[in-house]
Amino acid sequence: MKFSLSASLLALAASAVQAQQPQNQTGPFFLHITGKEDKTIDGYAGACHAGAAIEGLCFANGPKPSGDNVNYASFYFNYTGNQDVDGAEVGFVSWNLQLAPGSDPAVVPSPMSFTYSITSNVAQPMFGPGNSQQSVGFDKDGKMFVFGSMDDATFEPDNRPHNPYQPKAYYNWFVCWQYVGSYYYHAVGWATTLPPHNPTCQAVDITQVMI
Ligand SMILES: *[C@@H]1O[C@H](CO)[C@@H](O)[C@H](O)[C@H]1NC(C)=O
Ligand SMILES: *[C@@H]1O[C@H](CO)[C@@H](O)[C@H](O)[C@H]1NC(C)=O
């Protein structure tokens, strides 16, 4: 499978770069995707066209990306050091949108956020220059987690929890056949609760592999 990208609306993309507080960045790295139950799932994530300067996170079974696909599969992790879970920094993942040759800047960092649906619990990771930044991290085994701080599963009527803030790593990653923008892709999905509503979703681990 080839990851494709629209080359349009790059001026719009370039204008969306924002000022940030000091951050450290690691990368580039690949995101290795392996099935939790279905061991035939073994491949890599790559940015795939979902709209003007907007990409989803597609799945391609097979070996490490090479050649033209390396750019689409190269990600970065930014963190400030303000939050961690069990010693793992919490920050956000981004992908670099490459502008036309000769452009200044040459690339536009595109943070990952989730797009939610009101009729499913499966959200799509999306990359875009103006995106909000989904809080994620990589644990000691390099597995990507999503940072969560509130769990309403134990709430009781009229009994306000004293300390609802419980920072925790969640790993509800799947690959699913799903709409990413208006494209029907085999792509990474995030289940806000389990099990995922979409019956094509298969549970996966997503592991950081430094390039
Ligand atoms: C991530 O951190 C690097 C290094 O500090 C910085 O240059 C870059 O702008 C940051 N990326 C985003 C999307 O804020
Ligand atoms: C960022 O990197 C610098 C240089 O390696 C290091 O001194 C600093 O502690 C790092 N900051 C955070 C928040 O990890």
Automatic annotation (TrEMBL):
It comes from the Eukaryota. InterPro entries: DUF7907 (IPR057229). Residues 28-208 form the DUF7907 domain. This is DUF7907 domain-containing protein. Keywords: Signal. Residues 1-19 form the signal peptide. Pfam families: DUF7907. It comes from Apiospora hydei. The keyword Signal applies.
